[in-house]
């Protein structure tokens, strides 16, 4: 009956076979050559076969020795790879974030390199998905979400106040101005693009601003603000959407505010969301501090940009018509 293999003997055998001699194996294992030879002899006795042909000062694997060596080599290589992965994981830090898609692509992604440069020891995973995290069953540190901050039973912290107003491509605005100098009349003739998952939508905004008779059949409706922004840039119509998500297009002039006659709505729109038990995690604290700082910087730049162009803002805590969906 073959006894269980001695792992120590297998380590010695693999080293001798790989390096081609007892002396080299002894140097690698930092033991005496006689100790290596004794382990090989014990292994051969355990298996009941010869593993090496001994030819003067040289060792040559037998057929059984070759079979065992091939298997041992693969096994030890797998063990070495797993060990290296464990060591790497121990020496790095992991941060897992889930983020609303448009916010992730258009706001977070252009800034994320700054976090990685500041903290190169962290491995960051970001999932841009509309699906809210089930923190009790999923391994996610935090969500970055669009909403009102009223997620029951969870820790929330606002990172960005959003600014919402109508905007469109410059050429399309000029086209509407050919019809009238009155921005309300212009909107009555405009193609309105609907961001269906936004908190502030045309059916709420138009009556509040005295615009009557505008077509709300919406020839284009999108469930992602990023798609609405692109449609407006291409001259497809007017959007009522987030300056947070369209700031670069506004700064480049690819989009322009529709009119200074309408106040800009400001509201706390983007949030850190996580269980209270996650707040004490170093990963959550570190990223929260960083993203809040980036959010404050963004809001300073946004307010300055609006003020330079004569826009007035009105703070609102929430819209009269809201959806619970993520954009």
Write a structural description.
- This protein has eleven helices and twelve strands.
- It has helices at residues 7-19, 22-29, 33-47, 63-91, 101-118, 170-177, 183-188, 202-208, 225-233, 243-252, 282-308; strands at 52-55, 58-61, 93-99, 122-128, 142-146, 155-168, 192-195, 220-222, 238-242, 256-257, 264-274, 313-315.
- Residues 319-327 have low confidence and may be disordered.
- It has two domains: 7-91, Winged helix-like DNA-binding domain superfamily/Winged helix DNA-binding domain (Arc Repressor Mutant, subunit A, Orthogonal Bundle), CATH 1.10.10.10; 101-327, D-Maltodextrin-Binding Protein, domain 2.
Furnish the topology, listing elements before pairings.
Layout: H1 7-19, H2 22-29, H3 33-47, E1 52-55, E2 58-61, H4 63-91, E3 93-99, H5 101-118, E4 122-128, E5 142-146, E6 155-168, H6 170-177, H7 183-188, E7 192-195, H8 202-208, E8 220-222, H9 225-233, E9 238-242, H10 243-252, E10 256-257, E11 264-274, H11 282-308, E12 313-315
Parallel strand pairs: 3-4, 3-5, 7-8, 7-9, 11-12
Antiparallel strand pairs: 1-2, 5-11, 6-9, 6-10, 6-11
Helix pairs in contact: 1-2, 1-3, 1-4, 2-3
CATH architecture of the largest domain: 3-Layer(aba) Sandwich
Overall form = elongated
Briefly note the structural class of the backbone: alpha/beta
Question: Can you count the beta strands?
Answer: 12
Mean pLDDT: 88
Q: Could you give the distance between the termini?
A: 67 Å
Weakly predicted, low-confidence segments: 319-327
Specify the CATH class of the largest domain.
Alpha Beta
Number of domains: 2
Radius of gyration, taken over Cα atoms and rounded to an integer in Å: 33 Å
């Amino acid at each position: 009956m073959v006894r269980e293999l001695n792992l120590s003997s297998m380590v010695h055998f693999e080293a001798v076979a790989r390096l081609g001699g007892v002396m080299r194996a002894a140097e690698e294992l930092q033991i005496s050559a006689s100790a290596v030879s004794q382990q090989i002899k014990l292994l051969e006795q355990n298996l009941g076969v010869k593993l090496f042909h001994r030819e003067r000062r040289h060792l040559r694997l037998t057929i059984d020795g070759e079979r065992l060596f091939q298997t041992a080599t693969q096994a030890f290589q797998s063990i070495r790879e797993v060990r290296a992965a464990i060591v790497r994981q121990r020496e790095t830090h992991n941060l897992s974030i889930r983020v609303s898609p448009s916010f992730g692509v258009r706001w977070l992604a252009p800034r994320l390199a700054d976090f990685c440069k500041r903290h190169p020891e962290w491995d960051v995973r970001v999932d841009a998905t509309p699906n809210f995290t089930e923190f009790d069953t999923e391994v996610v540190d935090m969500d970055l979400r669009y909403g009102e901050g009223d997620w029951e039973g969870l820790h929330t912290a606002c990172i960005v106040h959003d600014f919402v107003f109508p905007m469109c491509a410059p050429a399309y605005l000029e086209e509407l101005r050919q019809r009238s100098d009155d921005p309300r009349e212009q909107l009555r003739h405009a193609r309105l693009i609907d961001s269906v998952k936004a908190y502030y939508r045309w059916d709420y905004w138009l009556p509040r601003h005295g615009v009557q008779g505008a077509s709300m059949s919406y020839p284009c409706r999108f469930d992602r603000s990023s798609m609405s922004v692109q449609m407006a840039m291409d001259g497809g119509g007017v959007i009522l959407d987030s300056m947070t998500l369209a700031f670069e297009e506004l700064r480049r002039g690819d989009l322009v505010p529709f009119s200074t006659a309408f106040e800009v709505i400001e509201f706390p729109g983007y949030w850190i969301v996580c269980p209270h038990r996650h707040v004490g995690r170093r990963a959550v604290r570190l990223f929260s501090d960083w993203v809040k700082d980036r959010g404050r910087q963004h809001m300073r730049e946004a307010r300055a940009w609006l003020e330079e162009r004569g826009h007035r803002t009105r703070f609102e805590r929430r819209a009269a018509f809201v959806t619970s969906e993520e954009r």
